[in-house]
Amino acid sequence: MRFVFLLFISFLVVNTAVAQDKNLSTQDRLKELARLKKESDERKKIEWDAYLVRVQESKIAKQQKKQADSIEKSKITTTVVKEDDLGFTKCTSQELPYYKVKNLTTGLEEQVSFNDYIRKHIYKKFRYPEFAMDHELQGRVMVYFLIDKEGNPQIKDVLGPKNGLILEEEAVRIIKSLPKAIPANCDGKPVTISYAIPVMFQMEE
Q1: CB atoms near residue 86 (< 10 Å)
Q2: Angle, vertex CA 134, rays to CA 18 and CA 63, nearest 5
Q3: pTM to 2 decimals?
């Protein structure tokens, strides 16, 4: 795994530095290495404990937001509009969001579907958080979002693995960095449409 490799390299560098100090006996060198490892473990524990506090605060904030949204929805009385499986209101013709991308070979603009574009976008923007690697955090993060009538992404919710807040934050960052799309339309009028996209965080073995 990458984090094991990084840990090994850092340990090797420290080990080499300690070993080069010829004034230390073998026993003293081993003691120094043990001390440095203990300091590293203690520092990681402090980081992890502080992170868990952030995770708990995030959970509380999510619960409060859901309660507030639920109360707000109960106050609103609107006409119910039936939607199809894609989230469109019923219409005779509909079109999903897409992007216009310049072809580097021809110099002409080409239409790229939203699904094709976002797959490449995630691959291009993906960064595995170093903290997550250090603490072996991995798993699937589901990001629920809208592409609004102007073609902008609007995050609705995000669900990741246990204690996966930092992974959720990275997945949200990726989706928020989407450029403005040509919005979905229903009978020629722009409409908001919902998406659920999985972002996988898997450490190499």
Answers
A1: 11
A2: 150
A3: 0.73
